[in-house]
Amino acid sequence: MTTHHAKAASPASAGGAAPGPRVPRQRSASGAAVEARRLERRSRRYRWDVRFSPYAFISPFFLFFAAFGLFPLLYTGWASLHQVSLSHPNDMEWVGLGNFTRLWNDEFFWDALRNTFTIGVLSTVPQLAMALGLAHLLNYRMRGSMLFRVAMLAPYATSVAAAAMVFSMLYGRDYGAVNWALGLVGIDAVDWQSGQWSSQFAVSSIVIWRWTGYNTLIYLAAMQAVPGDLYESASLDGASRWQQFRHVTLPSLRPTILFTVVVSTIGATQLFGEPMLFGGGDANGGAGGQFQTLGLYLYEMGWFNRHLGRASAIAWTMFLLLIVIGLVYWALSRWVSRSGGEEG
Amino acid sequence: MRTIDSVKAGAGPGVAVGARGGRRRGWRGASGAGRQLHAGWPTYLVLGVFTVGSLYPLVWQVFAASHTTARLAETTPPFWFGDRLVENLGSAWGDANMSRAVVNTVFVAGTVTLSTVVFATLAGFAFAKLRFRAKNVLLTAVIGTMMVPPQLTVVPMFMAVAELGWTDHLQAVILPMMVSAFGVFFMRQYLAQALPGELVEAARVDGANSLRIVWHVVFPAARPAMAVLGMLTFVMAWNEFFWPIIALTQQNPTVQVALTNLGRGYVQDQGVVMAGALIATLPLLLVFVVFGRQIVGGIMNGALKG
Questions:
Q1: Which of A46, A170, A212, B297 could form a disulfide linkage to B7, CB 3.0–4.6 angstroms apart?
Q2: How far is B94 from chain A (nearest CA, A)?
Q3: Complete domains list, chain A, with CATH
Q4: Rounded to the nearest 5°, which phi and psi values hold at A84?
Q5: Contact B277/A166, CB-based, under 8 Å?
Q6: Rg of chain B in Å (alpha carbons)
Q7: What average pLDDT does range B34-54 have in this prediction?
Q8: CATH 1.10.10.60 fits B86-304, yes or no
């Protein structure tokens, strides 16, 4: 896009002359007309540039999203109204809401929904609570603070697959390190895979391990943005560390906490890789489906049971669930910001 | 006023306050609140316990990767390195197709990183510094797209891949990851404060068109944030899991696909399985050891406006 520059700089060479001393451009009346037209063209180009280049710059994002986000999203909705087999994905047979009514009467679906909820709570609540506490500690003046931060973020760089495989060995019934450690303090070996609560606890612990450090950093960033004089005046008033945390830090962090709760909830709703690889790569989420999540059930329905239409119906149910959750949080955030404003 | 630069330069907490740059540089204005309090030994103890907890599974992975299956099936788990590390890594590299997987994943993650960073910088610049109609609506739309879960796109994408015969072709996993809403937002937040509007105006007055401005003004100003976004994107692309295990098979896998097959009992030897997991983890851990500070700084700075 340097063309107009080149043209403007050397009209002589455009006319075929060798690049030499510059030829004065405005010699005759016709030359002035050429110049006026050139300026006109240039300013038109400038206006076009200013008006349209912003759209050109943002268009790659929207084009890719349209192709790989929006269109598939809508087409999944369309497919959920059809019977589609994995072997012949392009033969679609209209069944209306049939896939959804089957889902409604499908006990595996309700189990998966319940498991998604309980694993979501088991993983999100301790994770965010610990992250908040750790961020508070990291916010003290100390040595090696960066070392702690990097170390706690290391699990974030570990892939779901690797983490789940390591943890499923650590949680092994007969030779796992966890049961060995429990044995040291006299607790009987736990069959982490087959129990309802034990397996859900184990799957949740993988999520907690991977994400606590990340959320700690987000809370820490928010804590460092709290104006220091708030703490100074609090300590002048004789507030203890705990009171400062309770009455200065927590209220200032409310928007950030809400943000992390939203992100973690979205992540928990989609949980897939951890339960799958904890179960040795099977999609059934344990022999009795005791840790099968919605994401895993979708995968089993589509790629093991080969019903893409019903898998689409699960996907859209998840989407509707996310929208409901989003609305709840939106209402909550309005309430939080309003009550925050009253206090402060 | 800590910028990524000052984090990289190793400025301790609070040291760099106000020392670097003008008002416009960097993301954060406030100094560390509550930093007047010194940490006591209980703080170090708790943080130490969590650090060990964070690192132990990674270290244990190396222990496990260096033993035979027979050793791993003893009642007492290994607490130190065995002597089978090289053999196990070799088996994982050869038998389990990890060599091919690593090459593929470097290509996929590299391409995805490059395109994400460039497109995110362009869009972030437009949202931060240019004026156009419906800007706020469009920015909200970008953020809203983060709500669309991957589960909602896999069925049609699988149908398309089957129709095009792209199963096992790497473009099937690259194309859907070429842009990132998080990246656009991240670059917008950075450029809104790090790039002075006068600089853009001055370049315009000098007759530069928008592409020249991007090349000569925006990219240099955005470089620290582009580097951080690049690292975060590389980590995400390397670890991408759900769509690749649908679109690719063991014939032409990415690391995560090959690893999933290992986890499914494709190889019986547990030491080799852990060696495969180690191969999948190690490159990113190396990135972390070298650039840990910048990644930490990037997440913290990016988070603030989230």
A1: B297
A2: 18
A3: 34-79 (no CATH), 98-343 (1.10.3720.10)
A4: -130, 130
A5: yes
A6: 23
A7: 82
A8: no
Answer whether B263 sits within 8 Å of A218, measured CB to CB.
no
Model's pTM, two decimal places? 0.84
The reply to whether B33 touches chain A by the CB within 8 Å rule is yes
Measuring CA to CA, which residue among A204, A208, A215 is closest to residue A136?
Answer: A215
Kindly state the tokens that stand for A190: 């736990």
A67: nearest CA partner in chain B: B176
Q: Where exactly are the structural domains of chain B?
A: 1-33, 86-304
User: CB B24: neighbour CB atoms within 10 A?
Assistant: 15
C-alpha–C-alpha distance, residues A55 and B210, integer Å = 12
Q: Tokens standing for A108?
A: 């595996």
In whole angstroms, give the CA distance from residue A172 to residue B74: 12
Strand-strand pairing, A92-94 and A82-84: antiparallel
- Chain B: closest CA distance from residue A181 (Å): 9
Residue B152 has pLDDT above 50, yes or no: yes
Q: Across the interface, do A145 and B13 touch by the CB < 8 Å criterion?
A: yes
Residues of chain B numbered 141-180 and touching chain A (CB < 8 Å): 141-142, 145, 147-159, 162-163, 175-176, 178-179
Is some CB atom of chain B closer than 8 A to the CB atom of A156? yes
Give dist(CA A321, CA B8) in Å, integer.
42
Chain A touched by B263 (CB under 8 Å): yes
B270 in contact with A, Cβ within 8 Å: yes
Chain B CB contacts of A70 under 8 Å are 148
Q: Which of residues 286-315 of A touch B (CB under 8 A)?
A: 295, 298-299, 302-303, 308, 311-312, 314-315
Count each helix (H run) and each strand (E run) in chain A, helices first.
Answer: 16, 2
Q: Name the residue in chain A with its Cα closest to that of B172.
A: A68
Side-chain-facing half-sphere of B116: CA atoms under 13 Å: 31
Is A167 within 8 Å of chain B by CB?
Answer: yes
A307 phi/psi in degrees, rounded to 5: -110, 90
